[in-house]
Each structure stands twice: as structure tokens, then as C-alpha cells.
Amino acid sequence: MKKKLILITIILAISFSVFLPIFILTNNSILEIIVISIGVTLYHFLMRLIVGYIINSIMKNKANYNNFWFREKRFEKKLYRVLGVRKWKKYLPTYSKDTFDIKQKNIDEILGATCQAELVHEIIMVLSILPIGLIPFLGAPEAFIITSIIAMLFDSLFVIIQRYNRPRIIKIIKREQKNNK
Prior knowledge:
Helices cover 73% and strands 0% of the residues. It is mostly helical. Helix 5 (107-127) runs antiparallel to helix 7 (141-180).
């Protein structure tokens, strides 16, 4: 998935670089829509890569899963059952599958990675709103509002998955610790 995201981002950057000067020269309204659409999409892809890179550089999958922010809240089990997370979580892509691979990583590393992934997606959710600030300058409120809402909802799914998985992984750790005593 990582290579695909990078490739899509490169294609979007090249497309934006090609269409923007043409739009500036022609002031064509159709090209304006194309440039805005490509630009907003590029922002969402590039921002995700940058946030992931920065957070990974800082945390290196070593987040403290006992931190209040990452602990399971009382309402979550019921919410995840209602949302049917167990049934649909396997259909969403994983940026780097080896990060969560039990055969390659120990449980503590995987728990740290779930916290880090959650934090990345939460930051991305907040940054997904920023394009709405361009409405007064560029117009096209529908494009900015719709893409921002869809992006936020999409990233919220990944936050949910990390928060759903973490208590289950903690149970495995506790079971192993109990068996090793």
C-alpha cells in the first residue's frame, strides 16, 4: 500500500504541475475545476505521507499504550459491536503490513504501532478540515467540504480499527504473562 500511495501522490503532483500553468495562462473555467480537484486531492495524499513520516520519525512505534489517550473507554466495546468493526476491518488497507505482523514484531512493538497509527490518523482527521479555509479564495465550497468530510470519515475508520484491536492485543499479553508465571 505504501508504494501505491507514494505513486498516486507523485502522479497527482505531476498532474497539478502540468495543469496549473495551463490554467494560469488560459483562465479556463474547466481547467480551474480540474486544478482545484487535483490540488485538493494532492493535499490529502501528500499530507498523509508527511504526517506519517513525521510521527514515525518521532515515535518509532514506541508509544505508551497505557497512556490515558490510548486506553479503552467504557463506551467503546458497545460502540464497536454496534458498528460491526470485526466484520469490516479486514477490508481496509494497511499502509505497512509488516508493522503489525506478529511473526516479525513482538506484541509491545505492535501495541506501540497501533497507538502511533491511531495518532497519525487523528492528526490527519484534523488536517483534513484545512482545505475548507480555501473556500473564500477559490470558491467551490462543495468540493472542499465534501472532500474534507469524506477524508475525515475515512481516517476515522482507521482510528476505530486501532482502538478496536488494542484491547484484544493487551489481552493476549496478559494471557501470555499469566501462562509464563
